[in-house]
Specification:
- Helix 5 (55-76) packs across helix 6 and helix 8 (147-168) crosses helix 9 (178-195).
- The protein is globular, with a radius of gyration of 18 Å.
- It starts with a helix and ends with a helix.
- By secondary structure, the chain is mainly α.
- The protein has a two-stranded antiparallel ribbon.
- The chain has helices at 2-9, 13-20, 24-31, 38-48, 55-76, 78-99, 111-124, 147-168, 178-195, 203-208; strands at 129-136, 139-146.
- It has a single domain, classed as Up-down Bundle (Rhomboid-like fold), CATH 1.20.1540.10.
Length: 212
């Protein structure tokens, strides 16, 4: 619904995004004592989770949410899952702000919150498999990969990209907010134990459960 509203704005979309989305430099300005609208600083982290930079961006995020989200929701229940999702999104956003506090590029997209869902899935469903499209030379092959392997590789890719982005362009991190993905995933790893409806094992056992 939000995406279709974005489409309806036409030429005014860029202005709308800058007015409602998270801009890291605005938080730094507020901390430094400059006058910044507090209402925007409070609302923007939630608004940014529902904005997307085009249909492929939206489709990619919703595809990952569709694949991994329903199982995590089953373990948490609807309301807890919603709160978990939003909290992971907030942690992801502020991770990006901490890493790129002077960036003037708006942060948009649900990927930080969805990364939290992936982190929860990593712990809750270690023996599940993910059907993955793998390029083999000139062919594409569907292969079932253990979820811990798929998500582990995904996280390493995010971490590698985040480090490179920070080293090459620390002040103007644009494009993909890699550190939001990293922060969201770690938040999901840790926070899932407080939101699921079943008895909880010690955290160190949960975290390393996929490997023993």
């Amino acid at each position: 619904m939000v995406y279709f509203y974005e489409v309806s704005l036409g030429a005014h979309l860029e202005q709308f995004v800058r007015e409602v989305a998270v801009v890291p430099s605005e938080y730094m300005a507020f901390v430094s004592g400059y006058r910044v609208a507090v209402q925007k600083l409070l609302i923007a982290p939630f608004a940014s989770m529902f904005l997307h930079a085009g249909f492929p961006h939206l489709l990619g995020n919703m595809w990952f949410l569709y694949i991994f989200g329903d199982n995590v929701e089953d373990r948490m229940g609807h309301i807890r899952y919603l709160l978990f999702y939003l909290l992971c999104g907030l942690v992801a956003t502020f991770t990006h702000i901490l890493v790129s506090p002077t960036s003037s590029i708006p942060i948009i997209g649900a990927s930080g919150a969805i990364s939290g869902v992936l982190g929860a899935y990593f712990v809750l469903f270690p023996r599940a498999s993910v059907l993955t499209l793998i390029p083999l030379f000139y062919f594409l092959q569907l292969i079932e990969i253990p979820a811990v392997v798929f998500l582990g590789i995904w996280f390493i890719m995010q971490l590698n990209s985040g480090i490179l982005q920070t080293l090459l362009a620390p002040s103007e991190a644009g494009g993909v907010a890699w550190w939001a993905h990293i922060g969201g995933f770690v938040a999901g790893l840790v926070l899932q134990r407080f939101f699921r409806e079943e008895p909880r094992a010690p955290f160190y056992k949960e975290l390393f459960y996929p490997f023993w």
